[in-house]
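S.,

Sequence below, as promised.
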Amino acid sequence: MKKTTFRAMVGAALAVAAAAVVLPGTAGASWYKHAVPAGSGTADRPAADAFGRVADAVLTERTAALLDGPQRRRSGSPASGDVRLSAGFVRSEDGAETSLRDRKKRLRELGEAYTAADTDVKVNDVEVRGGKASVRVTESTTLTYKKIRGNEPATTGFQAYHELAFARTPDGRWSLTGIRPTDTGLAAVNAPLKAPQVQAAADNGLPTATPASTRRPSRLPARKPTSNSNGLDYAAMGAYAERYWSRYNPAYPSYDSAGAGGDCTNFVSQALKAGGWKHAPGSWDDYRKWWSDPKLGNTLSFVGVNEWSWFALSSKRTTNLSNVWAMGVGDVLQMDFDRNGSKDHTMMVSYRDRWGTPYLTYHSTNTYRKSVASIIASYPNATYFAYRT
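The prediction came back faster than expected:
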């Protein structure tokens, strides 16, 4: 879709004035429910719907930049009135879509493409104060894999949180000035990214993971068995991840939106436990111990990215793979975004197609069956660590 069409669509989507109503906030981990980013205000239904249409238009347009073909728009008329896009926002979105088209090119080079997508946006809350509006939304997007090899899974999907900023103009209209992600983990596939500032890694004397190559091999990697001699059930690990990727298991705490990295490692630890990993009792702050208990809490190694790696390697429960494409179901992938020696994100392979492509499922941002090719295309400068479980 052309940018002019996008502007016209958004321009007709909003004409509201909403009063702020204070709502209670939340902080920290919630044990029995998935924590949604809290805001400090809300608006009536027509206002929230109008803001939601604008968010949907922006995020749908970003996703469309990744597609081989045009994305179908939802039927129905947008809200009456209009909203002006600030000059800065227009420039930012032009750059974002250029970045996403470059990512689509990198994906094609890795043998992956998407043919269609569907984006749905839910408004969580709206705050309007002093001529400014903050709109917090949840995006749920599903992309359809193009059948290039013929054995790709049907779809990949994710949930992502965003905050949109609007400002009142002198003529009483709203101006959309910006949108930012509020997730703490891996960015969604349709999120524009800046190149990281690469830093030097420091040696802290703890168990060290070996980086894995991201080069796509010419031969099919050996297929990982569904279980091992120690009684681990890798299929159960993958099944757990795919069951709870978007609806959280109430038997465990949720660190989503709790800061300090989110829920990614906590989620992977749950899946490993579902597949046969046993608790290693001991002090909660000892990386050589690993457990989670609804009354006592959990060890740092159960929920922390680096602590999990230290435990996994020191306990000999994992070994590092030399190439990310060699991963099978139940294996774990970690990333160091800026290559500073501190890992930033943890994911699990929940599916592998007949060609051998691993697909990752994870929390923060909640994502289902995202191919390793898609992750590499989005983060070509990151350091990757692959663990055979």
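Confidence is low (pLDDT under 50) at residues 1-41, 73-81.

Coffee later?
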